[in-house]
Amino acid sequence: MALHAYPELNEPCVVSGVYFSALGREDLHRLMAGPHPFRLYTGYAGWGKRQLDQELHGGGWLTLPATADDVFYDLQQVDLWDQCRCRVGRDILSETLDLSHAPQDPEMN
Question: Which segment of 22-31, 44-53, 60-69, 96-105 scores lowest on mean pLDDT?
Fold first, then answer.
């Protein structure tokens, strides 16, 4: 499976600028030879029936809208976990305290 930014493969768009593929060999070669960013995945993670819905409803997950930058981040330059954690914190602070804006780094307050 792949997430990629290659619209010419005519795959479903999951987030603006991000497409999902269960690639065949020919399309995989096209994807890897092209200039577009991509991520390849293999394996399996699963939940029981309605388990994820229950965990989300129970507050077990903090979620954010995904972006192409999140998917195709540079492993050498970006700590994605830290970046998303800060965004979640800003969202929570903004909603809870009714702030019109919050600092990028709350430690700089």
Answer: 96-105
